[in-house]
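hey so i finally got around to running both of the ones u sent me last week. sorry it took forever, my laptop kept dying halfway thru and i had to restart like 3 times lol. anyway pasting them below in the order u listed, first the sequence line then the structure token line for each. didnt double check formatting much so if smth looks off just lmk and ill redo it

first one:
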Amino acid sequence: MAHHTEDEWPQSSAALLDHPEAHECTLQVFACGVAVFHLVQPHTPSSLTELAVWRYRSYATDLPWARTKIHDLLDADHSRVPNPEYVLSLYWLTSTPWTGSEYDTALRLPSTPSVLVDRGASGGPAPLDGAVEATLLATGFDHPGIVPFGVRGVSAGYAGWSGVAYASISPERSLTVDELVACELTVQALWCFTHQIQQMIEDGQDPSMPEEYGWRFRAPRTPGSPRPARRRPLSTSSCGRPS
């Protein structure tokens, strides 16, 4: 059954769908025209490398599944159905064998899973030697694209372009799963929306906007560097900032 959010911005509607592997699948459709699939997939990997490989392999099947599902729901000409933009993983850590600095590194690695996977393997994404993960856990890992957003003593969280990882240290004070998911759904919808506007402009088209709004307010970006414009919806909002 679909439900609607009427008192929030951006407005959206949601409906439960079936997915071949997900424990739960929700389609969130925002008033701006963006559709986001939210898949809940409990996973107990034997290593972070196994998790990273699963991440790449599942994306290879989830993207075409999403396109087919949208086609079926719209009952439209398959050639006119847009391709899904991307998949972003949000990892909620419930238990771990690591402590201290290894615990911190273990949260960082899912945000940049490519360091644990051979993406060019002939048979598809393959795990790197287990020594790679062991070395990273022992020596630490950082990446300029990873942004911390946890609160000391309350939670630990890291966000990157490939994923977000979060662990609750003090459940009564940290974010809940629903709060974090709601934030990410909104942020990803805004990212997709602004990316579509940017793509139309770069293709020489003027986006169609309501008269009371416009699109020329968006700050210019440095040629060849689209990330500042795409990051703006999050960096200039209160999303992800501790209250």
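and the second one:
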Amino acid sequence: MTGAPAKTGSRARTSSRARPGSWASAVEKVRLPLVLGITDGLLNALTLAAASLTGSGSPVGWSLAVRVGCAALITAAFTVMVADYAERRAHLVHVSKELSLSESGRMAATRLGRLALLRSYAAALVACASSFVGAALPLALGAVLPGPPWIVVVLAVLALAALGAVLARFLASRPVLWALAMAAGGVATTLIGIRLRIA
């Protein structure tokens, strides 16, 4: 009788984890570059094209969407690649020291070091793709949707709020607070973009 609850609790804990090879497990592996890329792309769109999106700059078109998307893609790829590989290599150097190897960077020069580099390339690829989509998609919608261009600002801010709510679910936090914080960041970024008047 006493062993049954323990088994049930164990099964519950096991089921709450992402199973290897499942969709949730795949998302978990790329969660950081994916979230960073989407957020970076949306904020780039709101900053670089804020004047156009509020009607005080050049008209929103496909050319602007592609240009802003490419700018977001390049910055996200470089940033994530450098940061991710630095973190992975630092971890290998730390492990080398813990194992008292003669050279601190010896483990980073092995197959593990090459694997870390490949995984950093993969993270950069996810980040640049998601950043391009996050930046170009709102502007592309502004080019095809009828109505005032500031509707795109509303859609981008709502997308940030939705992303915040989804993140809160993953982090067992309050979705409303995360959504409001992400939306506030989008509004603040738009105001800065209007002030800078880049495009």
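quick thing i noticed on the 2nd:
The CA atoms of residues 77 and 124 lie 5 Å apart.
anyway thats it, ttyl
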